[in-house]
Design a protein that fits this description.
- The protein is built from 7 helices and 5 strands, in the order E-H-E-H-H-E-H-E-H-H-E-H.
- The model has no long low-confidence stretch (mean pLDDT 91).
- The protein has one domain: Rossmann fold (3-Layer(aba) Sandwich).
- It has a 5-stranded parallel β-sheet, sandwiched between helices.
- The protein is α/β, with parallel strands linked by helices and 182 residues long.
Amino acid sequence: MKRVVLVNGVPASGKTTVARAVSESLGVPLLTLDTIKEQLFDELGSDGDREFGRALGRASLRAIWALIADFPPDALVVVDAWFRLPPHDAVLGGLRAAGCDRWVELWCYAPADLLAQRYAGRERHAGHPSAEAYVAELMDLARTAKPMAIGPCLKLDTSDVGSLDIGPVVSWIRANLGTECR
């Protein structure tokens, strides 16, 4: 059966940096919610409407599960997404529909003020909320959001994501997803 590494955390928590490093280290595909969502923004447009953006996020996640369903039966894939707040029934349903029988979660977190600084300082696709519209909400999320905890979970302090030693993370993934994992 398929196995998945779910890289989770609020926006600006370092998910994509961690997910890319894990994907490269394991030599497996990486699917990112923002890659799909931003293509949908480009095709369908966006006027900054938050509900429309959230709908595209849900559609993007459904696309990820559909893509994984077409992967070979023994595939391992890394998924980079902010899986939002509970309940996580849609995530569990997506994993099951994709034919995944094992998964782990990497929970990326950092102090709220650092996440706000990161979000405000980076260039985002125009479809994402502006820093002015989102930083206060992001800081609240950073203080209250928690891992999904729907399987084994490794919490990663990504305050200095560039110096994170990915070796122990990959060893933990291998231990939790089976020794046949590359």
